[in-house]
Design goal:
This protein is an alpha/beta fold. Helices cover about 35% and strands about 25% of the residues. Strands 1, 2, 3, 4, 5, 6, 7, 8, 9, 10, 11 and 12 form a 12-stranded mixed beta sheet that branches. A hairpin with a 7-residue loop joins strand 8 and strand 9. Helix 1 packs across helix 6 and helix 5 crosses helix 6. The two termini are about 25 Å apart.
Length: about 280
Amino acid sequence: MNIIGLGQAGYNIAETLSQYHQYNVYKIDVGAKGHQCYDVEEQEDPESYEENSPDLGSFFKGTKGETLFIIGGSGHISAMCLRIMEQIKDKCELSVLYIRPDTSLLSKNKSLHENSTFNILQQFARSGLLKMLYLVSNTNLEKILGNVPIIGYNSKINELLVSTIHMINVFRNSEPVMGKIEDPEEKCRIATVGISDIEGSEEKSFFSLDRTKEKCYIYSINEERLKTEGDLRKKIVSTVKAQAETEDMKVSFGVFPTNYEQDYCYILNYTSIIQ
C-alpha cells in the first residue's frame, strides 16, 4: 500500500507508518526532508496553497495501486489535497484518512477552511471519486487514551491510530479461522475505525459516526486460547448477533489467531450519510 502524508499531521502519521515494511511512504510538507519527501514552499493562506500546488508527476513516478492519503484538517496546506489527488487518481485506488482537529480551538478562518475540506471530501467519497473516506477525531482519540501529557501528546495519539490502522490492514490480508471481513455496500464510503475488548463491553470509536449502516468486527485472539477455550465461539457469535439486532444494521466479523498475549477487537464502521 502507498501512504501519502500531507501537512504536519499527515507527515507525522506517515512517518510512524514507515516503521512497517508493507508501506511505500511519501511525505509532503513545508520543510520536509529525507527519502520520498517533498518540500513545499510556505504560503500565507489556503487559497495560496491551492493555487501554488506543485506538479508532482516525477515525485510520484511509478506510484500505482492502493493508496491511503492522510490529511489533517487544521493546516492551510490541506487545501492542496484535491490538486494532488487529481494528479494520481488515474493510476491509484485512492482512500483518504482525514484527521479532524478539536474544532472549538480553531480560529474563525481555520474553522471555515476545515469545515469546507471536511464536507468536500465527503462529497468526493459519496460520488465514488474516493474508494473510502476514513474519519478520525483527535477529541475521540484523546478520550480513549485518557490523561495524556503535553510533551509526547501527538506521539501517543499517532501511536494509537497507526497501530490500529496497521493491524486492520494486516488482517484484511490474512485468512480468518472463522467468519470473513465483508466489504461494505458500494454506497457506504464514509467510515471510521474503533477498538473494543473481545466481549464487546465498550466500543471506542475514533469518530462518532451518525447512523452507522454497516459494522465489521475483527477479532485478534491468542492462538492458544482459540484452541482451548470451548465457549469462545458462542461468546463471539452472541455479541455479533446482539449488535445486529440492537442497532438494526448489517454486521460481519472475522476471527484471526495471533501470538500476542493480549486479545483485541478492531471495529470498522461504515455509513452513506454525510456527517
